[in-house]
Specification:
Belongs to the cation transport ATPase (P-type) (TC 3.A.3) family. Type IIA subfamily. It is a multi-pass membrane protein. The chain crosses the membrane at residues 44-62, 68-84, 232-253, 259-284, 676-701, 707-728, 749-770, 776-798, 819-838, 850-867. It is found in: Membrane. The protein is α+β, with helices and mostly antiparallel strands and 879 residues long. The chain folds into five domains: 14-29 and 103-213, Distorted Sandwich (Calcium-transporting ATPase, cytoplasmic transduction domain A), CATH 2.70.150; 36-95; 227-290 and 662-876, Calcium-transporting ATPase, transmembrane domain; 295-319 and 525-660, HAD superfamily/HAD-like (Rossmann fold); 325-515, Calcium-transporting ATPase, cytoplasmic domain N (3-Layer(aba) Sandwich). The strands form four sheets. Strands 10, 11, 12, 13, 16, 17, 18, 19, 20, 21 and 22 form an eleven-stranded mixed sheet that branches. An eight-stranded mixed sheet has the order 8-28-27-26-9-23-25-24, with helices on both faces. It binds adenosine-5'-triphosphate. The site of adenosine-5'-triphosphate has 21 residues, from helix 11, strand 17, strand 18 and strand 21. Residues 314-316, 391, 393-394, 423, 425, 428-430, 446-448, 486-488, 545-548 line the site of adenosine-5'-triphosphate (ATP).
């Protein structure tokens, strides 16, 4: 591979790399995270925990050492569980971050290769293109319109122009125009540089700036929960104060007795386990998404994904396979059909149904030469397969040129490239300048037909030049594009002596159109199914593509975007005022020949209409739209580093179906979090309700603070945790997206919590009073009440696994392994609590009799049946 252009005065690139054993490792040292001690202490940094610790201290002062010890013990155990689980969640997220490798294009053994940037060593030659992150500190050898955004290093947000001429050795970092620094982003242009420092030895390594700061485990939902905790603490203190006053003033309880009851109330109302469970549910969601190729870069995306209403997607590579093959060659007088599969240069040409050999049709070789020389891709044979290095569109052109009988090496040797203007989606063409060995200078141009034809005055016709018949070409191209073919025109111009290629030389026109190529890029099979699933899930899909209107429309129809499908072009949008634009953004399904600016305007317009947008992108210019979208989705394989850094999620396989999978998982995570809340709160409500009833009626306390803590802790670490692991319900993609403004606790959920709380209070209190009336000891009656609540929780877990669908019945128990395992563990714990003498002493319990167990079981059945009846009633009412 030759370098695009070597400036005067630079030395040829060294062909061997330095392999000094003293060189710095190429990876930056990882940013310092929180230490284990800090993480452990953070577990206690929570108002609810302060309340519990305060309660433990005062209980101790009052001489109730056992109670105080149990409260403190539970706080510590809870912190330990939180610590271990959060540590696991953080490790899982770190592992997922590491799944995003950072690739660099280098020249090794004379060949261009892509490798992990951590393998770079000083002396390597690195290629830079727009959107790349600079992989090491580089001395630039060659630049073409290269501008680099160095904000990470210098704080300067305007991209710096780069050059190859040396600068003063004392120049400040921001003025060293002949250098490119690790971690900065290529805003535009191309360049080549020699690695001078890697890893910690780079400028960014020296100031040890974190490129990818570790994101705290905080999401809107977790913040909402933190607010809820603070409010709950206030309510708890108010309730406890009220109970204390009421008990001492109205019922003549002693202050010490009432204080214990108030502590019990505080302990009852606090859902200690909830924050850890929510974090775990999120982390599990992130892991599940990663398993389905969706890599989450920012945790809040997990929640947002569940409420996406519109997906704005690219076409090429996302909905289509991005495996291009040239199928048609339109020359002025002939329309060739090309055979062959993939990139393998095996296949031939047909004209009007008959085989056509390239030797008889020299026009084919002319078109192929332009397509081969104005090209940066390389095809290599690996056994039977052909591998592509570079852009798939260009790979297809190389394969076509080989089919047309050209030799890559001979053509490049005969017409060496002197300069190039790379393809950018703004101007939609690529141009190269070549010098032959007889003093001739040629420019080859290839690109979107509109862009290329606008620069052509003639067409190649029967071996000679004729004036261009643009209308005739337009008609023929419409026909090819309507079949879904991607079109690319190639043109040529001979110029007088020219040393470098400037944009104005190309845009001056005067080209001769050689022909138009039709490339096939079939839709991905899984995209068709995924589009149908999104539509069933109430999500609209809009395809925004740089491709031709007819091509985009045909592909849109093939994947089933909408029926009927409405399409428009970027040029049509440009003429609209804001109101017209907003209407067009909402009405159309396909936006063809759209620019990155159109993408940004579309996202903003749709968001103003209240839509929640997931937007895909790959180029450096897509970054603003990705940032603006609610969920920016970057392509892992073909996307630039700039796009990935602006995105919330990266698709490892660039596949549309992966977005659908992530949305499904996102809806599932949100469901599980809601289920955990709806599960945990009635336990707290039930316990607090029992105490309040007892205080109001002047009765003995039905459960003690330590018993309450026991219930909260064991049910949280078994049953509630099982909910975080629940598989996503089958029907999640059959319902419309969630309203992002709606609170976590909808009216329906508050009703459900109130209903179950009432049942719990009735069951627990009823059991306690019944046992006492039957002559059981206070300890046995309390033990029966505790077991009633726990059994209530066990059956309620199965109610909650399906928020509105029946808990039993076809497929309902599928995936309930973690639920059953949690129940098994809990049963063992409850047996220990009830029958182990040490536990009896610690918790003040005595085993209930066989009759009590029967009544407890009966309560469980009633609770289960009532919730299922409520569900059936709500389903019938359409709730
Ligand atoms: P999408 O935005 O869905 O990925 P796209 O890949 O077709 O669509 P662009 O990459 O902007 O969008 O390409 C637009 C047009 O530019 C193509 O239809 C093709 O005609 C032309 N084109 C694409 N790649 C090249 C290239 N490497 N050199 C020259 N022209 C190209």
């Amino acid at each position: 591979m030759t370098l695009a252009r070597r400036p005067h005065g630079t030395q040829p690139a060294p062909s061997t790399r330095l392999t000094s054993s003293a060189q710095a490792p190429a990876a930056l040292p990882p940013p310092a995270g929180r230490g284990p001690l800090q993480r452990m202490l953070a577990q206690f940094n929570n108002v609810l925990i302060y309340v519990l610790l305060g309660a433990a201290a005062i209980t101790a002062l009052l001489g109730h050492m056992v109670d105080s010890g149990v409260i403190a013990g539970v706080v510590v155990i809870n912190a330990l569980i939180g610590f271990v689980q959060e540590g696991k969640a953080e490790r899982a997220l770190d592992a997922i971050r590491a799944m995003l490798p950072f690739q660099a294009q280098v020249l090794r053994e004379g060949r261009r290769e892509e490798l992990d940037a951590r393998q770079l060593v000083p002396g390597d030659i690195v290629f830079l293109a727009s959107g790349d992150r600079v992989p090491a500190d580089l001395r630039l050898l060659d630049v073409h319109n290269l501008r680099i955004e160095e904000a990470a290093l210098t704080g300067e947000s305007v991209p710096a122009d780069k050059q190859v001429a040396p600068v003063d050795s004392a120049a400040a970092l921001g003025d060293r125009a002949c250098m490119a620094y690790s971690g900065t982003l290529v805003a535009c242009g191309q360049g080549t540089g020699l690695v001078v420092a890697t890893g910690a030895a780079t400028e960014i390594g020296r100031i040890s700036a974190m490129l990818d700061a570790v994101e705290p485990l905080a999401t809107p939902l977790l913040r909402q929960l933190a607010l809820f905790s603070r409010r709950l603490t206030l309510v708890t203190l108010l309730f406890a104060g009220f109970a204390f006053a009421f008990g001492t003033l109205v019922h003549d309880y002693s202050a010490a007795e009432m204080f214990l009851a108030a502590v019990g109330l505080a302990v009852a109302l606090i859902p200690e386990g909830l924050p850890a469970i929510m974090t775990i549910a999120l982390a599990i969601g992130v892991e599940r998404m990663a398993r389905r190729n969706a890599i989450i870069r920012r945790l809040h995306a997990v929640e947002t994904l569940g409420s996406v209403t519109v997906i704005c997607t690219d076409k090429t590579g996302t909905l289509t396979r991005n495996e291009m093959t040239v199928r048609r060659v339109l020359a002025a007088q002939a329309d060739f059909v090309v055979s062959g599969v993939g990139y393998a240069p095996r296949g031939g040409f047909a004209l009007d149904g008959a085989e056509a050999s390239p030797a008889q049709h020299p026009v084919l070789a002319g078109i192929a030469r332009a397509a081969l020389l104005c090209n940066d891709a390389a095809l290599a044979r690996a056994g039977d397969a052909w591998c592509l290095a570079g852009d798939p569109t260009e790979g297809a052109l190389v394969s076509f040129a080989l089919k047309a009988g050209l030799s890559e090496h001979a053509e490049r040797a005969a017409l060496p490239r002197v300069d190039a203007i790379p393809f950018e989606s703004e101007h939609r063409f690529m141009a190269t300048l070549h010098h032959d060995h007889a003093g001739g200078h040629d420019i080859f141009l290839k690109g979107a037909p509109e862009a290329v034809i606008a620069l052509c005055q003639w067409q190649l016709d029967g071996g000679g030049q004729r004036p261009l018949d643009a209308a005739a070409w337009q008609r023929r191209m419409e026909g090819a594009a309507a079949g879904g073919l991607r079109l690319l025109a190639v043109a040529h111009r001979r110029v007088p002596a020219l040393a470098e290629l400037r944009m104005d030389t190309v845009t001056a026109g005067q080209f001769t159109l050689l022909g138009v190529l039709g490339l096939e890029d079939p839709p991905r099979d899984e995209a068709v199914a995924a589009v149908a699933r999104c539509r069933a899930a109430g999500i609209r899909i809009k395809m925004i593509t740089g491709d031709h209107l007819a091509t985009a429309r045909a592909i849109g129809e093939q994947v089933g975007l909408a029926l009927p499908l409405s399409a428009c072009t970027g040029a049509e949008l440009a003429g609209l005022d804001d109101a017209g634009f907003a209407a067009a953004a909402a009405a159309n399904d396909v936006f063809a020949r759209a620019s990155p600016e159109d993408k940004l305007r579309l996202v903003t317009a749709l968001q103003e209409r209240g839509e929640v947008i997931a937007m895909t992108g790959d180029g450096v210019n897509d970054a603003p739209a990705l940032k603006q979208a609610d969920v920016g989705v970057a392509m892992g394989a073909k996307g630039t580093e700039a796009a990935k850094e602006s995105a919330e999620m990266v698709l490892a396989d660039d596949n549309f179906a992966t977005i659908t999978a992530a949305i499904e998982e996102g809806r599932g995570v949100y469901d599980n979090i809601r289920k955990a809340i709806v599960f945990i709160l009635p336990t707290n409500g039930g316990e607090a309700g029992m105490l309040l009833v007892a205080i109001m009626l002047g009765l003995t306390m039905p459960i003690t603070p330590v018993q309450i803590l026991w219930i909260n802790m064991v049910t949280a670490v078994t049953l509630a945790l099982a909910l975080a692991f629940e598989a996503t319900e089958l029907g999640v993609m059959a319902r419309p997206p969630r309203d992002p403004a709606a609170p976590v606790l909808t009216g329906f959920l508050v009703w459900r919590i109130a209903l179950v709380t009432t049942l719990m209070v009735a069951g627990g209190m009823g059991m306690f009073l019944w046992e006492l009336r039957q002559g059981a000891s206070l300890e046995a009656a309390r033990c029966a009440a505790v077991n009633a609540i726990v059994i209530g929780e066990i059956v309620y877990l199965f109610n909650v696994r399906r928020l509105s669908a029946p808990a039993l019945g076809r497929g309902a128990l599928a995936g309930s392994r973690s639920a059953f395992a949690a129940v098994a563990v809990l049963v063992v714990l409850q047996l220990l609590f009830t029958y182990l003498p040490a536990m009896q002493q610690l918790f003040g319990t005595a085993p209930p009799g066989a009759g009590a167990w029967l009544r407890i079981a009966g309560f469980g059945i009633v609770l289960f049946a009532v919730v299922e009846l409520e569900k059936a009633w709500l389903r019938r009412a359409g709730g």
